[in-house]
């Protein structure tokens, strides 16, 4: 027991969190030792505020700190729930990104030696991001696919979120590889619109087949059309101005179609649903 | 009142007929699917979990039709599913992973969602490992994580595919306790290839074999099917479909008893054995 006690005004200020720092410190020290003043303080404390503080503390303690990609996304303005969904995308794990980067680096390196390889780079470039989208939904790679399929979360939304995340990471990789191409000509960027068009076409196809099959179909068609064209020296037919406009139209058409049918079409995220 | 109603469901994978014209009804309480590996249990549970659509047949879950997109979403909002061999994002912590599933279950408000995650973590006894990475957990603990995510949002229908397989006896008991608790007031449909789980937990069972429901009813009804077909003898009886030496030294024979055999009360396992054994017998006689 101590001889002095906090006066009622000090107790009120402290309880409401309005005490100046000096007073708060000495009040705190006293409250640790004095049961009488602790009883006195409880009458003043706003229980809702205490509850809120307690909740916040509990949340900090066992909702663990987010991993750095999640923190970065949240800082960029992405919702914390969406950031968690992105963090669970299989493609965004090291090995897959390294594979994409590796193939493109190889293509860019080969292009140094031969004009034809330069053209092959354009054929290969869209395949990187497309493969990333396929990997994001490959059943064997997403260990929680079944749980996700049985959950009410919109399949289309998940598809778009993961695709956007994959593109945000893979497109810069392709761009860097493109910069390594010899000469600084328009070819270095000519893969962008085809990539957008092919991705949108694949997304639209998921109303009929799974993302992996959709990407497979789209990628195969692209290679079958552009590879022979490139080898025959007519690459401009596949990536020239006319082709660019075509891919722009495909991208816009695909997105519009998805937007219009989003409530009526079932997206096939898995082989079975 | 049936929460789950499956009528005439068939499903093939290529040439394999995984399910062949199966009927199943389940209401509040624990309903068990019993059958050997490859019988079609997982296929049936995936249909009940809205993950798979049957090739033929009608399915009604929680009074709704899962083949319609809007109704399917409504079902999924009240469904919990623990798949067989459920995988995890092993880099996530227990809390992060369950939180991830809660997001997929459309719990958008962070504070409420975290409260719900804490609730299922406590329910499955995972508090002490909640901040641990999943890859650092034992198999039994991981299974609990699987159960915890299925319990999110207090689902009206809980689908558990072989929830106790690979657990040691003590964990198995703990799991039975949690599942039987979960079955109070909600519909639980689970599978197992072990009769002990089914006997301990289920008020109704369906025996699935080669894609067909060979029996549906209560455990007592299944056991009763073996009445008069189990006897003891000092030796393995040639008439027995199965016979084994018990701890007391006598042979327990299951099958068609010879005249004057010393009949004993059957167990659910005896009845299951008979149900599994008969088709092969018929085939070998013809
Ligand atoms: N996705 C699939 N693709 C091909 N065959 C499958 C698939 N799922 C199940 N099967 C086959 O269907 C049959 C039933 O399997 P399943 O439902 O997993 O049985 P259970 O769960 O009782 O062991 C098995 O023969 C299995 O090989
Ligand atoms: Mg199975
Ligand atoms: Zn005092």
TrEMBL record, chain A:
<feature type="transmembrane region" description="Helical">
    <location>
        <begin position="237"/>
        <end position="260"/>
    </location>
</feature>
<feature type="transmembrane region" description="Helical">
    <location>
        <begin position="117"/>
        <end position="138"/>
    </location>
</feature>
<feature type="transmembrane region" description="Helical">
    <location>
        <begin position="212"/>
        <end position="231"/>
    </location>
</feature>
<feature type="transmembrane region" description="Helical">
    <location>
        <begin position="186"/>
        <end position="205"/>
    </location>
</feature>
<feature type="transmembrane region" description="Helical">
    <location>
        <begin position="94"/>
        <end position="111"/>
    </location>
</feature>
<feature type="transmembrane region" description="Helical">
    <location>
        <begin position="159"/>
        <end position="180"/>
    </location>
</feature>
<keyword id="KW-0472">Membrane</keyword>
<keyword id="KW-1133">Transmembrane helix</keyword>
<protein>
    <recommendedName>
        <fullName>Zf-HC2 domain-containing protein</fullName>
    </recommendedName>
</protein>
<keyword id="KW-0812">Transmembrane</keyword>
Automatic annotation (TrEMBL), chain B:
<keyword id="KW-0067">ATP-binding</keyword>
<dbReference type="InterPro" id="IPR027417">
    <property type="entry name" value="P-loop_NTPase"/>
</dbReference>
<dbReference type="InterPro" id="IPR003593">
    <property type="entry name" value="AAA+_ATPase"/>
</dbReference>
<dbReference type="InterPro" id="IPR003439">
    <property type="entry name" value="ABC_transporter-like_ATP-bd"/>
</dbReference>
<comment type="similarity">
    <text>Belongs to the ABC transporter superfamily.</text>
</comment>
<dbReference type="Pfam" id="PF00005">
    <property type="entry name" value="ABC_tran"/>
</dbReference>
<dbReference type="InterPro" id="IPR017871">
    <property type="entry name" value="ABC_transporter-like_CS"/>
</dbReference>
<dbReference type="GO" id="GO:0005524">
    <property type="term" value="F:ATP binding"/>
</dbReference>
<protein>
    <submittedName>
        <fullName>ABC transporter ATP-binding protein</fullName>
    </submittedName>
</protein>
<dbReference type="GO" id="GO:0016887">
    <property type="term" value="F:ATP hydrolysis activity"/>
</dbReference>
<keyword id="KW-0547">Nucleotide-binding</keyword>
<keyword id="KW-0813">Transport</keyword>
<feature type="domain" description="ABC transporter">
    <location>
        <begin position="4"/>
        <end position="235"/>
    </location>
</feature>
């Amino acid at each position: 027991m101590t001889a002095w006690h906090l006066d009622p005004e000090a107790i009120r200020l402290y309880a409401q969190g309005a005490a100046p720092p000096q007073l708060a410190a000495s009040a705190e020290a006293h409250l640790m030792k004095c049961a009488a003043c602790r009883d006195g303080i409880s009458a003043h404390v706003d229980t809702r505020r205490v509850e809120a503080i307690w909740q916040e503390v509990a949340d900090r303690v066992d909702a663990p700190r987010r991993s750095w990609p999640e923190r970065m996304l949240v800082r960029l303005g992405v919702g914390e729930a969406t950031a968690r969904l992105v963090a669970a995308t299989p493609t965004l794990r090291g090995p897959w990104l390294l594979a994409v980067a590796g193939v493109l680096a190889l293509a860019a390196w080969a292009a140094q030696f031969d004009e034809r390889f330069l053209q092959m780079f354009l054929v290969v470039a869209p395949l990187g991001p497309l493969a990333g989208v396929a990997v994001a939904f490959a059943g064997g790679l997403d260990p929680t696919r079944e749980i996700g399929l049985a959950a009410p979360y919109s399949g289309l939304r998940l598809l778009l979120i993961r695709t956007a995340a994959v593109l945000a990471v893979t497109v810069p990789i392709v761009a860097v590889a493109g910069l390594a191409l010899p000469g600084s000509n328009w070819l270095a960027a000519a893969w962008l619109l085809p990539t957008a068009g092919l991705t949108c076409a694949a997304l639209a196809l998921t109303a009929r087949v799974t993302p992996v099959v959709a990407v497979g179909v789209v990628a195969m068609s692209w290679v079958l059309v552009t590879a022979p064209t490139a080898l025959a020296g007519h690459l401009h037919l596949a990536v020239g101005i006319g082709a660019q406009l075509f891919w722009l139209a495909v991208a816009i058409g695909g997105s519009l179609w998805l937007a219009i049918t989003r409530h009526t079409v079932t997206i096939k995220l898995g082989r079975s649903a | 009142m049936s929460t789950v109603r499956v009528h005439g469901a068939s499903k093939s994978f290529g040439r394999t007929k995984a399910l062949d014209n199966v009927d199943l009804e389940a209401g509040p309480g624990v309903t068990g699917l019993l059958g050997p590996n490859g019988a079609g249990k997982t296929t049936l549970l995936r249909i009940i979990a809205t993950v798979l659509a049957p090739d033929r047949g009608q399915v009604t879950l929680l009074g709704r039709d899962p083949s319609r997109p809007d109704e399917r979403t409504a079902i999924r909002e009240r469904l919990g599913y623990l798949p067989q061999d459920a995988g995890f994002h092993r880099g996530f912590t227990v809390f992060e992973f369950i939180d991830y599933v809660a997001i997929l279950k459309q719990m958008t408000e962070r504070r409420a969602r975290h409260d719900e995650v804490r609730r299922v973590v406590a329910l499955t006894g995972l508090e002490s490992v909640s901040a641990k990475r999943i890859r650092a957990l034992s198999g039994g603990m991981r299974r609990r994580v699987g159960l915890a995510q299925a319990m999110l949002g207090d689902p009206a229908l809980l689908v558990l595919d072989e929830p106790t397989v690979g657990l040691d006896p003590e964990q198995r008991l703990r799991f039975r306790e949690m599942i039987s608790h979960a079955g109070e007031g909600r519909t639980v449909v689970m599978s197992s290839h072990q009769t002990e789980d089914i006997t301990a937990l289920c008020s109704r069972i369906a025996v699935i074999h080669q894609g067909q429901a060979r029996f549906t009813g209560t455990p007592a009804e299944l056991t009763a099917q073996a009445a008069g077909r189990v006897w003891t003898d000092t030796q393995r009886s040639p008439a027995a479909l199965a016979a084994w030496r018990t701890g007391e030294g006598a042979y327990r024979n299951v099958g068609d008893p010879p005249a004057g055999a010393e009949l004993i009360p059957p167990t659910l396992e005896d009845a299951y054995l008979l149900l599994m054994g008969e088709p092969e017998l018929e085939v070998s006689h013809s």
